[in-house]
């Protein structure tokens, strides 16, 4: 009898489905998963990511919620351009 572990034995040990002993190998994590876990445990990074996502959703939803079209004029101007108009309640 050899004591070498085959890949089937390692898979059984990782899943915890062993026939005899209750021996389990520690669960391994990929570098990507470790980085993802470390990133989301950083409170500032998580809050900033969520806020950035909310802002991006608002920007993408702007065409649905805009009151005026892209080329629609809000105020009619009879003389000149609207650079020096005072603020108004219309817009």
List the helices and strands and how they pair.
Layout: H1 7-15, H2 31-41, H3 43-65
Approximate shape: rod-shaped
- Write the element-wise H/E pattern from the N-terminal end onward: HHH
Strand content: under 5%
Compute the number of helices.
3
Give the structural class: mainly alpha
* Alpha carbon gyration radius: 31 Å
Helical residue percent band: 40-55%
Oligomeric category: single chain
How many β-strands, per DSSP?
A: 0
Concise summary:
It is built from 3 helices and no strands. The protein is mainly alpha-helical and 91 residues long.
What would you say this structure looks like, in words?
- The protein has 91 residues and is mainly α.
- The protein has a domain at 29-65.
- Helices cover 47% and strands 0% of the residues.
- The chain contains 3 helices and no strands.
- It has helices at residues 7-15, 31-41, 43-65.
- The model has no long low-confidence stretch (mean pLDDT 78).
What are the defining features of this structure?
mainly alpha, 3 helices, 47% helix
């Amino acid at each position: 009898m050899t004591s070498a572990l085959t890949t089937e034995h390692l898979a059984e040990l990782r899943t915890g489905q062993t026939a005899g002993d209750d021996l389990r190998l520690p669960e391994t994590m990929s570098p990507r998963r470790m980085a993802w876990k470390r990133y989301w445990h950083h409170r500032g990074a998580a809050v900033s990511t969520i806020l950035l996502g909310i802002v991006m959703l608002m920007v993408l939803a702007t065409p649905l919620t805009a009151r005026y079209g892209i080329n629609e004029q809000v105020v009619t101007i009879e003389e000149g351009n609207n650079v020096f108009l005072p603020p108004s309640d219309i817009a």
